[in-house]
């Protein structure tokens, strides 16, 4: 990074799982740098969904470095996810034709539930788990039996990781959704379900949806639950493979509650 900006810049890692993000500072200039970030970052910037993109540079090895404004602020806390502005920004994302067109142009096909389920049941881990683990088997059967109830064709750009740590509130009260590496074209119920089930008491779902701009009907409820069950099954696999026993047990308990 020093070769790119110059030795006068103070550059240090910004954390994160990939280790590809950095903060850079020189006098009154401050940048957030990332290697090989989402290819539609420019559209996200233009839409005001992420901090402003300053420049993009391609290195000789083919890597692409992006620089965005580094803004003072904080990640949202779980309680902050109730804020109406979170619902409004998510609706803006799901409603954006520009984002959808860009993601389709770079080859993202719609994420179909039938394909997700087929991939799940044919993964060696779950082939074995469905035989050894009654809970996993029950959850997969639930996905099979309810898949006809989640037909939906109005696919949108979904962020696919509604963790509160991915929401940035600046000191000027600007709200952004960052870390778009896992974005997909999919049913908006993927994002909405993950957010509501994780952060919003069920008695407050209808109020939150009123800020989003949709009525919470049976179709949306069914679709949200289907995707949350699917995502919870995947999280059990991830915790198990990482040998995070306590987290896996919590996910299993949560899955039991979902199956009710």
UniProtKB/TrEMBL annotation:
Domain Aminoglycoside phosphotransferase stretches: 14-214
SUPFAM superfamilies, per the entry: Protein kinase-like (PK-like) (SSF56112)
* Gene Ontology molecular functions: transferase activity
Keywords, alphabetical? Transferase
InterPro entries membership: Aminoglycoside_PTrfase, CcrZ_PhaseVar_Mediator, Kinase-like_dom_sf
Keyword Hydrolase belongs to the record: no
Do you know which PANTHER family this protein is assigned to? CELL CYCLE REGULATOR CCRZ (PTHR40086:SF1), PHOSPHOTRANSFERASE YTMP-RELATED (PTHR40086)
- This protein is called Phosphotransferase family protein
Organism encoding this protein: Bacillus mesophilus
């Amino acid at each position: 990074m020093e070769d790119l900006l110059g030795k006068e810049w103070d550059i240090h890692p910004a954390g994160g799982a990939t280790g590809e993000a950095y903060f850079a500072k020189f006098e009154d200039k401050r940048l957030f740098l990332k290697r090989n970030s989402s290819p539609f970052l420019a559209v996200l910037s233009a839409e005001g969904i992420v901090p402003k993109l300053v420049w993009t540079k391609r290195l000789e090895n083919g890597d692409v470095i992006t620089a965005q404004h580094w803004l003072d602020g904080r990640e949202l806390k779980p309680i902050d996810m109730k804020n109406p502005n979170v619902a409004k920004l998510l609706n803006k994302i799901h409603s954006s034709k520009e984002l959808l067109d860009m993601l389709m142009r770079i080859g993202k096909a719609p994420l179909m539930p039938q394909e997700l389920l087929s991939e799940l049941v044919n993964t060696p881990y779950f082939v074995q788990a469905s035989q050894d683990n009654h809970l996993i088997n029950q959850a997969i059967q639930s996905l099979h039996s309810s898949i006809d109830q989640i037909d939906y064709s109005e696919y949108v750009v979904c962020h696919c990781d509604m963790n509160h740590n991915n929401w940035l509130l600046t000191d000027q009260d600007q709200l952004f959704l960052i870390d778009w590496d896992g974005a997909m074209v999919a049913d908006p119920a993927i994002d909405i379900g993950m957010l509501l089930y994780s952060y919003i008491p069920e008695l407050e779902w209808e109020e939150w949806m009123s800020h989003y701009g949709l009525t919470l009907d049976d179709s949306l409820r069914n679709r949200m639950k289907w995707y949350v069950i699917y995502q919870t099954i995947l999280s059990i696999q991830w915790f198990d493979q990482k040998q995070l026993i306590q987290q896996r047990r919590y996910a299993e308990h949560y899955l039991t509650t979902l199956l009710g």
